[in-house]
Design brief:
Helix content: 10-25%
Distance between the termini: 34 Å
Order of helices and strands: EEEEEHHEEHHEEEEEEEEEE
Largest sheet: 6 strands, mixed
Number of domains: 2
Number of strands: 17
Shape: globular
Number of helices: 4
Strand content: 35-45%
Radius of gyration: 20 Å
Strand order of the largest sheet: 1-2-3-8-5-7
Structural class: mainly beta
Length: about 260
């Protein structure tokens, strides 16, 4: 998931380009004066669908796992914020609502700016009876479509660098449509007789394919600590963007685990 942060009109706007075959934008309403985020940062996550697009790609519970503190320990956004802020920010109090039907078509939505798109979803939620609590950040997610006219093959590869672990892709290969949310699994066995904190890097072949891989949940987002002898199965939730070139039919998605540097004593 690619996050972009910008300040506009006394507010902090945060957007994530495309999520699970969906377009995802967050508007973080803040006071007129700048304040550092600390402690609980509740989000109201609003799921909206266009008047001519009735599909609901994922249930609200899926987004709760990704974007609220109910997903702690699952490699979602709550874990990302906790890791990047050294535990100073959490998503306690966040909730997911929808799906709400907007009074606009997908084509109409494409003709307006980002702020108006956000407002369309907020208005649909309000009309259905949900009012965003004062002080909550607002995340709006709308249901764009999957490109069913073509299919890709994604091959999963696992390796380690300097770690005598067993690390493997449980799902060796998957077929998917561009824009389609896909979940695959990897398995790690820490064969060492001591706890290990490790980090996973990733790459693709062809290399250009990396710009079209959009991950929503991944063990690669943060360091992972494994107890001596521990076996763990870990999901990766991702999609390949609809913008992926048509001449790319197969993508190799590789992960490599290496031991994280120890903090200075």
């Amino acid at each position: 998931m690619r996050w972009h942060v910008r300040r506009a009109r006394g507010a902090l706007a945060l957007s994530a380009a495309t999520c699970s075959g969906l377009a995802m934008t967050a508007f973080l309403a803040t006071p007129a004066h700048a304040e550092s985020l600390r402690g609980s940062t509740p989000w109201s996550v609003l799921l909206c669908k266009f008047s001519d697009q009735p599909q609901e790609p994922q249930p609200p519970s899926y987004f709760a796992g990704l974007l609220t503190d109910s997903g702690v320990g699952m490699g979602g956004v709550a874990d990302y914020y906790a890791d990047q802020s050294d535990g100073l920010i959490n998503l306690a109090g966040s909730s997911v609502h929808g799906w709400y039907t907007e009074s606009y078509t997908l084509a109409q939505d494409k003709t307006v700016d980002r702020g108006t798109r956000i407002q369309h979803c907020v208005d649909a939620a309000t009309a259905a009876g949900y009012t965003v609590p004062s002080g909550n950040r607002v995340v709006t997610i709308v249901n764009t479509q999957v490109d069913t006219s073509r299919e890709l093959t994604v091959q999963l590869v696992a390796s380690t660098a300097g770690l005598p672990w067993r690390f493997e892709a449980v799902d060796r290969e998957v077929s998917l449509h561009p824009g389609e949310l896909t979940t695959v699994h990897f398995r790690v066995v820490n064969t060492l007789g001591r706890p290990v904190t490790a980090h996973a890097s990733w790459n693709t072949a062809p290399a250009i394919a990396a710009r079209y891989i959009q991950k929503q949940q991944c063990f690669c987002f943060t360091n992972q600590t494994f107890a001596a002898g521990e076996t763990r199965e870990m999901p990766v939730v991702f999609r390949v963007s609809r913008d992926v070139p048509r001449d790319i039919g197969t993508i190799a998605l590789s992960y490599t685990f290496f031991e994280a540097p120890k903090a200075p004593a």
